[in-house]
Amino acid sequence: MIRMFKSLKKIMQKVFQGDRNSAETGRTPHAIWKIAGYMSSEEMDAHTVQIYWFNPDNFYMATKCKDQTWIVWENLGNDFCRNHIHFSNWREAVLFLYEESKKLGAIWGPESFGFRVGVNPFENEPDFSFYKEMVEEYYD
Question: What is the pLDDT of residue 1?
Answer without folding.
Answer: 54
